[in-house]
């Protein structure tokens, strides 16, 4: 090869490497005409990369250019295939630099080392005119004063890995700017800012995947792999997915629950780690931290803003879905559940062992335990038993140093913080130990609808008073949606009252007639069933659906979503409600979910957990809009609608601060750029989610993760050093 290409002898290593690359991909008689490559990787090699050693090549050099007037390519000599990631190594004979690139053009009839001097060939001219007609051939061939002074290739200066090293530098990662947005909640329609898009599907600008980025990505993958193999005995192929892995997209998409973040333009993780055991989680944390890579933690993927699987900076996702064992222990009335389980799986496991036990968590069975519990966990038994976090008695977390800590090990402060403060600011939660609650063998549910023409305004008005004082066994959620009226061409608001009562229908009827007669509930509206069947009723399944449906992790339809939240502390007057209906119909599609508070929620101190919205709150509002039309126009339209309605509600909702529920993640209320201003930025959304508990969360954060490794767009910041 050296002789054929007339390449100097000191390139024997390159020739040898090229020969080995080629031989490994060719069928061997001794292997029954199968190549060593195929035996090793179980797939046929592609021959498209094969090139002739020493031939003329033109690597694409844009990633090496310091400015746009630098050459896009140079005539080089093809030396070998790159070993650590896919690419060609091309030697510039003038400067002795080696460029590594995936994109190059070859002229396999010319061997530059045989020529006395190099001239740009036709292929080079084609390359230049295709990429940038303004650059002249002479600038491409620019001379280097040091030409000839370095007999050996100077790789270290020129490999694209250099650029990946820059991208991985921790200070750069943490200070990488996110798109700037308003940091205060809009108070009036005119105050509303343009959509604070962090990583929405409909960004106008297509993120540019440069070759430098591709090379950096490969390098991150290789470095992570090396580190991970040292720290975990796992079979890498079933735990780590790089973007080139054929299963990568399936793994990524299977837990994306909001189509806004499932577009080609949505930033994707460089690596997805799917731990099979706790040591894989420890290894992932240690390696991501060593590399200063942002780590996003995903359990069920229901974050309304996609924070568990999208980021504005290069990132790795740790997807906990394989860690989902559930151990229910009826004698102690407890259960231990790993974070990758869904709440449906938990409910199923409880009812399989007891028909008089349950757990007070959320409504939708596909929601992940990991994010749901740590975000506060709101469900239909909260008036009787409080939130999920009020029923957590222990937890296991992998901290920033890769240690596994239980409640005793982590201490009461951190245990307090992860019960409502959002675990992703503090570590990777592995499991929770929860306290089961008692339910009757038969509970009662109903769903009744009333339109404005059917006295809905009066009933909703009265519901606000009933909500505060009615029996704690009763929970009534109120859905308010714009709807078509009975008379053609008219619009109305439909109020749907959905309920769970922890008792039989007779007792429910007497509770309603004493505390909320305005609803006009009839006995035939009520259905008695097991608690597990009631969960399915609430998830919109009919009575014939088997409880096995709770195990279905994909039973919900994935749409484009936007949610926002508010709290109501004073009943809204009838006039106020009528004005709201008018605005609702004017806005278009956005609906409200009013979730009743009171009962047990009034008995728990604001400081008992980071979740502060306790006594004094009559109900929580979820603003809800979902759509199926694709495209930026639709997204703009619905995002504007929901922001308008939120703005119209300003006079009626809790103020100073206006409040929000962490599990109804909403980036409109503030984003943290994790720069010098991190505490102040954090305080904007932090006060809304946690009120005065924000400062305690900051202190805990500063103690357990002072370098702010566990961070996201709305994580808890560390204390500024001056405080
Ligand atoms: C269809 C639907 C129905 C919902 N119904 C309810 C409801 O009834 N009640 C309610 O309270 N909420 C509800 N939510 C909101 C839901 O509880 C939150 O979005 C919750 O955070 C989702 O948890 P997840 O694990 O599925 O999501 P993920 O997207 O995986 O995680 C959400 C957040 O938690 C972090 N996180 C996840 N796992 C871990 C972990 N192991 N350690 C540390 N941090 C972690 C993530 O990084 C992210 O910040 C609903 C959401 C949807 C989409």
TrEMBL record:
<keyword id="KW-1015">Disulfide bond</keyword>
<keyword id="KW-0732">Signal</keyword>
<dbReference type="Pfam" id="PF08031">
    <property type="entry name" value="BBE"/>
</dbReference>
<comment type="similarity">
    <text>Belongs to the oxygen-dependent FAD-linked oxidoreductase family.</text>
</comment>
<dbReference type="InterPro" id="IPR016166">
    <property type="entry name" value="FAD-bd_PCMH"/>
</dbReference>
<keyword id="KW-0325">Glycoprotein</keyword>
<feature type="compositionally biased region" description="Polar residues">
    <location>
        <begin position="181"/>
        <end position="191"/>
    </location>
</feature>
<dbReference type="InterPro" id="IPR036318">
    <property type="entry name" value="FAD-bd_PCMH-like_sf"/>
</dbReference>
<dbReference type="InterPro" id="IPR012337">
    <property type="entry name" value="RNaseH-like_sf"/>
</dbReference>
<dbReference type="InterPro" id="IPR012951">
    <property type="entry name" value="BBE"/>
</dbReference>
<feature type="region of interest" description="Disordered">
    <location>
        <begin position="174"/>
        <end position="213"/>
    </location>
</feature>
<dbReference type="Pfam" id="PF01565">
    <property type="entry name" value="FAD_binding_4"/>
</dbReference>
<keyword id="KW-0560">Oxidoreductase</keyword>
<dbReference type="GO" id="GO:0071949">
    <property type="term" value="F:FAD binding"/>
</dbReference>
<dbReference type="InterPro" id="IPR016167">
    <property type="entry name" value="FAD-bd_PCMH_sub1"/>
</dbReference>
<protein>
    <recommendedName>
        <fullName>FAD-binding PCMH-type domain-containing protein</fullName>
    </recommendedName>
</protein>
<feature type="domain" description="FAD-binding PCMH-type">
    <location>
        <begin position="265"/>
        <end position="439"/>
    </location>
</feature>
<dbReference type="InterPro" id="IPR057670">
    <property type="entry name" value="SH3_retrovirus"/>
</dbReference>
<keyword id="KW-0274">FAD</keyword>
<dbReference type="GO" id="GO:0016491">
    <property type="term" value="F:oxidoreductase activity"/>
</dbReference>
<dbReference type="Pfam" id="PF25597">
    <property type="entry name" value="SH3_retrovirus"/>
</dbReference>
<keyword id="KW-0285">Flavoprotein</keyword>
<dbReference type="InterPro" id="IPR016169">
    <property type="entry name" value="FAD-bd_PCMH_sub2"/>
</dbReference>
<feature type="compositionally biased region" description="Polar residues">
    <location>
        <begin position="199"/>
        <end position="209"/>
    </location>
</feature>
<dbReference type="InterPro" id="IPR006093">
    <property type="entry name" value="Oxy_OxRdtase_FAD_BS"/>
</dbReference>
<dbReference type="InterPro" id="IPR006094">
    <property type="entry name" value="Oxid_FAD_bind_N"/>
</dbReference>
